């Protein structure tokens, strides 16, 4: 593959095509950020650092942050034109995941609220 | 001297020439293969979303049995999380060494990845065995059915990832780091990173949400 090919080449999740020297740094930065997010999640869940009713929201935010770190630093998904197809597929996946999870929780919560009280 | 200007390599890729937007001709095989595998991974994550949804709606239905707070040991969960995270890191470094055609370094990182994954599975299996021994098996309550299905499916994925890794290491040793083997390694590393992403959801929803103070 000559330099011209490399320049116009497409990208795929998991591969850092353009800056091979920066890759170890990218993985290490991702590892550090992911460890920080993990420790923050465990600390938030086990202490009173956050206002108690806000803890689930805090945990969800930290989880999304960590998933973002994994996608960018480990799977190398970026916002460049070479990543359009990967991001589009990911966006569709996220949409389905969101519909399935929130839809199920919403429907079952409604069912539970409308159940006849068991005596 | 027009030829010289044509030969000059541009310094930035114009948007309309990037292959992701339809320009520049057909994509190389490794891009097509990895894109197809990326679609598979997303479908796998959609399947996990159904299990997450099932767990989320069932987690309160303990049927008078033990709750998550009584069963979960967060210290073990933290160790499991770190095992999987570091194995993702060594997997990435292994993929880099493979791209740079360094089979020796690749084998070291593959062995580290395998050991960390196996440690994760060992902790998870002993957690499951301890719960079943306490009478908190999958048939005890809706909460435990959802728990064992979700966490167990993730564990089965990790197990198949480890078996796949052994198979790939054998290929690297026998066939060397040729293009077809590199494409398989790329798919495997995507799979392994995706499992770590699913685990972030598991430890947040199942363990931390089930046991915060």
Brief rundown of the structure:
Chain A has 119 residues and is mostly helical.
Structure, described:
The complex is a heterodimer of chains A (119) and B (213). By secondary structure, chain A is mostly helical. Helix content of chain A is 67%, strand content 0%. In chain A, helix 2 packs antiparallel against helix 3. The longest helix of chain A has 30 residues. Chain B has 213 residues and is mainly α. The longest helix of chain B has 34 residues. Chain B starts with a helix and ends in a 5-residue tail after the last helix.
Features:
A: 119 residues; mainly alpha; 67% helix; B: mainly alpha; disordered N terminus
Topology summary:
The complex is a heterodimer of chains A (119) and B (213).
Chain A: H1 3-8, H2 23-46, H3 55-74, H4 84-113
Helix pairs in contact in A: 2-3
Chain B: H1 2-7, H2 29-58, H3 68-71, H4 74-99, H5 103-133, H6 142-175, H7 179-208
Helix pairs in contact in B: 2-6, 2-7, 4-5, 4-7, 5-6, 6-7
Q: Low-confidence parts of chain B, pLDDT < 50 over ≥5 residues?
A: 1-9
Percent of residues in helices of chain A: 55-70%
Specify the biggest β-sheet of chain B: none
The quaternary structure here is heterodimer
- Count the helices of chain A. How many? 4
Total number of strands of chain A: 0
* SSE series of chain B: HHHHHHH
Strand content of chain A: under 5%
Helical fraction of chain B equals over 70%
Which class of secondary structure composition applies to the elements of chain B? mainly alpha
Q: Write down the overall mean pLDDT of chain B.
A: 89
Compute the gyration radius of chain A: what is it? 20 Å
Structural class by sheet pairing and helices of chain A = mainly alpha
Greatest interface and its participating residue counts: A-B, 61 and 60 residues
Order of helices and strands of chain A: HHHH
Counting DSSP E segments of at least 2 residues, the number of strands of chain B comes to 0
Q: Choose one word for the global shape of chain B.
A: globular
Radius of gyration based on Cα positions of chain B: 22 Å
| Straight-line N-to-C gap of chain A | 74 Å
């Amino acid at each position: 593959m000559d330099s011209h090919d490399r320049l116009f080449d497409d990208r795929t999740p998991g591969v850092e095509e353009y800056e091979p020297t920066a890759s170890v740094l990218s993985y290490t930065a991702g590892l550090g950020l992911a460890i920080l997010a993990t420790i923050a999640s465990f600390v938030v869940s086990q202490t009173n650092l956050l206002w108690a009713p806000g803890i689930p929201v805090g945990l969800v935010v930290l989880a999304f942050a960590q998933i973002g770190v994994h996608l960018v630093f480990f799977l190398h998904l970026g916002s460049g034109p070479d990543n359009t197809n990967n991001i589009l597929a990911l966006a569709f996946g996220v949409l389905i995941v969101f519909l399935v999870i929130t839809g199920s929780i919403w429907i079952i919560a409604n069912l539970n609220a409308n159940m006849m009280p068991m005596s | 001297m027009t030829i010289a200007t044509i030969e000059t390599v541009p310094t930035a890729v114009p948007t309309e020439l990037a292959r992701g937007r339809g320009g520049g001709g057909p994509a190389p095989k490794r891009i097509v293969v990895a894109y197809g595998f990326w679609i598979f991974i997303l479908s796998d994550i959609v399947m996990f979303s159904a299990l997450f949804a099932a767990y989320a709606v069932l987690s309160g239905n303990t049927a008078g049995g033990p709750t998550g707070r009584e069963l979960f040991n967060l210290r073990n969960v933290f160790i499991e999380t770190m095992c999987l995270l570091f194995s993702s890191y060594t997997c990435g470094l292994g993929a880099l060494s493979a791209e740079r055609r360094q089979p020796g370094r690749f084998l070291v990182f593959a062995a580290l990845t395998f050991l960390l994954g196996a440690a994760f599975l060992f902790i998870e299996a002993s957690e499951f065995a301890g719960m079943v021994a306490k009478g908190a098996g999958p048939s005890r309550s809706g909460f435990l059915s959802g728990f064992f299905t979700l966490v167990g499916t993730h564990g089965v994925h990790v197990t198949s990832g480890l078996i796949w890794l052994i198979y790939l290491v054998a290929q690297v040793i026998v066939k060397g780091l040729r293009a077809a083997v590199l494409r398989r390694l790329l798919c495997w590393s995507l799979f392994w990173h995706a499992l770590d992403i699913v685990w972030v959801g598991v430890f947040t929803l199942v363990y931390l949400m089930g046991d915060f103070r």
